[in-house]
Design brief:
The chain is of the alpha+beta class. It is built from nine helices and 15 strands. It is globular, with a radius of gyration of 20 Å.
Length: about 290
C-alpha cells in the first residue's frame, strides 16, 4: 500500500521524529508512507471535475491519507476524489472548533464546565452569567495556545487585542486548576490515559512545561469516555478532560491532530503501530 502523510511546513519540522517513526512503522506493515506538505497542494475544479495537484503537477493517488493539518476543507476534497482520509473531514471540522465540539458532546449528557460561545468576539461579555475569573479560548486554537486565565477588565482588554474578531469560548474555571487528563482513542478503543499537571500554570500541557504520568481509568470514567466514543467515528484522537473539586471528569475538548509526546514519555505503547493497524482494518486491506 501507498499512503500520504500530510503536514504543514512548520509542523513537519517540529514533528520530524514522529514522521520518521510513522514511516518506519509503515515499512513493517508493507505501507510506503510519503510525507507531503499541505502548502504544496493545489485544489480546484478542472473541466468541471474536482482536481488536486502537487507542486503544480498531477500526482498518483494513494490508498489512503493521514492528514495532520487542521483543514477540513482540504480533507473533504481528498474524500470527494475517493481518497480515504484519517481523521475524516467530519471529525476534523468538529474537533478543530471548540464551540462545535461542546455543542455536539452536550447531547450525550457528559459533565462539563459552564461554557459560553461567542462568534466574531468584540470583548463584550455582558451575557456571561458568571464573573471573573474565567477562561477565554480561541475556538480554533490548539496545544494550549490562545488560552487565557482572565481575572480582571484590564486582562480582558489585553486578550481582546489577540482574539478580536475570532470565535471564542468563555468557561468557568474547573474545580481543580493545573491538572487535566488526555485519553488516547483509536477507533472505538481506549488505548491509554495520561494525567498532565502543572504547578506553575493553569494549563497542564506537556509541551508548555507540564509533567505527565500514566493514569488508570476507573470503570465510571471509562463509561463516560465510551459514551463519547460510541457517538463519533474517530480514527485517532485525544479526548481531554478537566477535574471538578471532587476529582470527577469534566469534558474539555477533542484533539483531531493529536500529539503523543506524553504517551511516549510515560509508556512503551506503540501508538503509531496501533493507528496504522486500525487504518488497514478500516479500509479492508488486512
Amino acid at each position: 500500500m501507498n499512503a500520504w502523510l500530510i503536514y504543514s511546513k512548520e509542523e513537519a519540522v517540529r514533528n520530524e521524529a514522529y514522521i520518521n517513526w510513522m514511516i518506519e512503522e509503515g515499512e513493517k506493515l508493507n505501507i510506503s508512507i510519503q510525507l507531503l506538505l499541505r502548502e504544496n497542494f493545489q485544489l480546484g475544479i478542472i473541466n468541471s471535475k474536482l482536481s488536486i495537484t502537487y507542486e503544480d503537477k498531477p500526482i498518483k493517488f494513494p490508498d489512503f491519507s493521514i492528514v495532520r493539518v487542521m483543514d477540513p476543507f482540504f480533507s473533504k476534497q481528498l474524500e470527494l476524489l475517493g481518497i480515504p482520509v484519517f481523521n475524516s473531514s467530519v471529525i476534523s471540522e468538529l474537533c478543530n472548533h471548540k464551540a462545535r465540539t461542546h455543542q455536539s458532546v452536550s447531547a450525550l449528557s457528559i459533565p462539563t464546565v459552564d461554557t459560553m460561545f461567542f462568534n466574531n468576539f468584540t470583548g463584550e461579555i455582558s451575557s456571561v452569567p458568571y464573573s471573573f475569573p474565567f477562561i477565554l479560548k480561541d475556538a480554533q486554537g490548539r496545544g494550549g495556545k490562545q488560552v487565557f486565565f482572565v481575572s480582571s477588565e484590564e486582562e480582558l482588554k489585553e486578550c481582546v487585542t489577540k482574539l478580536k474578531g475570532k470565535d471564542v469560548v468563555i468557561q468557568r474555571p474547573a474545580g481543580t486548576i493545573g491538572k487535566d487528563l488526555r485519553v488516547f482513542v483509536i477507533g472505538k478503543d481506549i488505548i491509554a490515559a495520561v494525567l498532565r499537571s502543572s504547578t506553575t500554570d493553569f494549563k497542564a500541557n506537556f509541551t508548555l512545561g507540564g509533567s505527565a504520568e500514566l493514569y488508570t481509568l476507573s470503570d465510571e470514567e471509562r463509561e463516560v469516555i465510551n459514551r463519547i466514543i460510541s457517538h463519533f467515528d474517530f480514527d485517532f484522537v485525544g479526548i481531554d478532560f478537566l477535574f471538578d473539586g471532587k476529582g470527577n471528569l469534566l469534558f474539555n475538548e477533542i484533539e483531531d491532530v493529536v500529539g503523543s509526546r506524553t504517551l511516549s514519555a510515560t509508556s512503551t505503547i506503540n501508538i503509531v503501530e496501533f493507528y496504522l493497524q486500525h487504518i488497514i482494518r478500516k479500509i479492508g486491506k488486512a
